[in-house]
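**Paired protein data**
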Amino acid sequence: MNSEAAPGQDAAGYCAALVRDQDFDRYAATLFVGTAPRRALLALAAFNVEIVRIPRLVSQPLVGDIRLQWWSDLLDGTAHGGESGNPVAAELLWAIDSYRLPTAPLRRLIEARQFDLYNDPMPDLAVLQDYLDATVGGLLHLGAMLLRPAPGGPQDVDLHAAHAAAMALGIAQLIARLPYDGSRRQLYVPKDLLERHGSSPEEVFAGRQTTAMQAALTELIAVGQSHLAQALQELLAVPRELRPALLPLALARRDLDRLARPERDPFQPEERSRLATLWALWRASRSPAFR
């Protein structure tokens, strides 16, 4: 909503720079597709960056809701003010028009991200699955649609692997971000899972590594690894030209293995280097099993 390109910088260049700086994993994954779909993938990723960072830019949930509504109105063609000078909005609308993308997944993503504006804990695994399917899975599915051999072909793409991939990627991301989210009293680890192991949201917010909390995280990581195995199995049936849309699964495989280490402190931030990210994606791009 507040994005403005620097003088002389086109909208596509602005989006590429934004994603490179704010979401390097998605930026790096686009390097393994052709130039035309890459521009559209970056438009979707830049839109996602704008949505994800809204909670960090507002002090009141109501203000965040207003910003999310602006993006919904943009998709409806009823947004007022700012869209003509917003490079992310311009690129998003270009991608939707050029590739005949449905807007329903984008609307669902916006609606799901309302959760981020409030401090309500994630109640259970079923709600988490819906959240990750809408936020992570929706982008994966749209990415596959961008890679169709004929952009003017059928709108829908059968990509069941996107659902399992969303869980694997999303769980890896939320556990890696536990120190940051916990400091903001934002809980994405299902509350009922914590309580079943004798832990609580307050232990997470306090940054206390307890046996009970570690047991809950271990179970959640196992759920992520199970979905990863399912996604990699379903990957075998995905048409070759669509497979790059699921390339981030290589990062989920690496991250879930690292997060599962018993000696790891879940409240000690660890960032994967950009070189490691590129290396993992390059290797995966050359392997049918994304290894």
Q: What stands out?
A: The chain has a mean pLDDT of 91. The CA atoms of residues 46 and 59 lie 22 Å apart.
